[in-house]
């Protein structure tokens, strides 16, 4: 898969970057660390340039997050409640969690959106509660883009360094991402197995 993604990036250019980053946030098939990291390797090999890659990658991230935000904004909290009550175990949340998150986001949501751009488990998911809380669209877009730009900068820099240091940089990056995915799956399975809903009272 790593070779395929690199070819999409190399042949599709910056348009391929926008597509992959938007898709990663809407239906996460591959992590942004792999996409932008491989983009950094392309920079090291002269197939791309740093700043255009950063700009287009950040645009793709923002588009993908905004799609999730719009869906949640239209849905609203009350329409979500039956879904949470039915599938809450697999999401490891109950309605009180959602309600508490909504109150917090209405007060501090823009900073939550910004800082979660640096957290693998929360980057895309935060768009949903932000939309449910009806955060102002302009504020959501601004803080999403700002956080994404900083994170993408770090990923491109790391990928470029890896491409300049190792001959088989794509393989090393691919294995690193595989390990990260396995750890995430194990953590999720552990969380589901131990999760219990709060008692209503």
Task: Tell me what the structure shows.
By secondary structure, the protein is mostly helical. The chain contains eight helices and no strands. It has one domain. It is 80% helix and 0% strand. It starts with a helix and ends in a 7-residue tail after the last helix.
Provide key terms for this protein.
201 residues; mainly alpha; 0% strand
Question: Mind sketching the topology for me?
Answer:
Layout: H1 2-26, H2 32-44, H3 50-75, H4 77-91, H5 95-115, H6 127-132, H7 137-165, H8 169-194
Helix pairs in contact: 1-2, 1-3, 2-3, 2-7, 2-8, 3-7, 4-5, 5-7
Sequence stretches where pLDDT stays below 50 over 5 or more residues: none
Q: What is the number of strand segments?
A: 0
Compressed to H and E, one letter per element, the order equals: HHHHHHHH
- Average pLDDT, rounded to a whole number, is 82
Kindly give the count of domains. 1
Structural class: mainly alpha
**Helix content range:** over 70%
Number of helices: 8
Give the termini separation. Answer: 49 Å
What is Rg?
18 Å
Global outline:
globular
Biggest sheet statistics: none
């Amino acid at each position: 898969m790593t070779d395929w993604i690199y070819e999409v990036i190399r042949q599709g250019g910056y348009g391929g970057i926008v597509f992959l980053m938007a898709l990663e946030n809407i239906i996460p098939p591959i992590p942004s660390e792999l996409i932008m990291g491989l983009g950094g390797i392309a920079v090291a090999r002269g197939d791309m340039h740093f700043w255009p890659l950063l700009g287009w990658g950040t645009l793709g991230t923002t588009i993908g997050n905004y799609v999730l935000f719009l869906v949640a904004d239209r849905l609203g909290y009350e329409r979500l409640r039956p879904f949470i009550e039915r599938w809450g175990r697999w999401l490891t949340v109950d309605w009180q969690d959602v309600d508490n998150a909504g109150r917090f986001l209405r007060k501090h949501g823009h900073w939550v959106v910004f800082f979660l751009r640096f957290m693998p488990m929360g980057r895309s998911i935060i768009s949903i509660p932000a939309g449910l809380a009806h955060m102002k669209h302009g504020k959501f877009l601004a803080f999403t883009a700002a956080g994404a730009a900083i994170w993408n900068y770090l990923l491109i820099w790391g990928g470029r360094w890896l491409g300049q240091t190792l001959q088989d940089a794509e393989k090393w990056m691919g294995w690193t991402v595989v390990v990260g995915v396995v750890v995430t799956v194990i953590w999720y399975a552990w969380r589901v197995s131990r999760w219990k809903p709060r008692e209503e009272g």
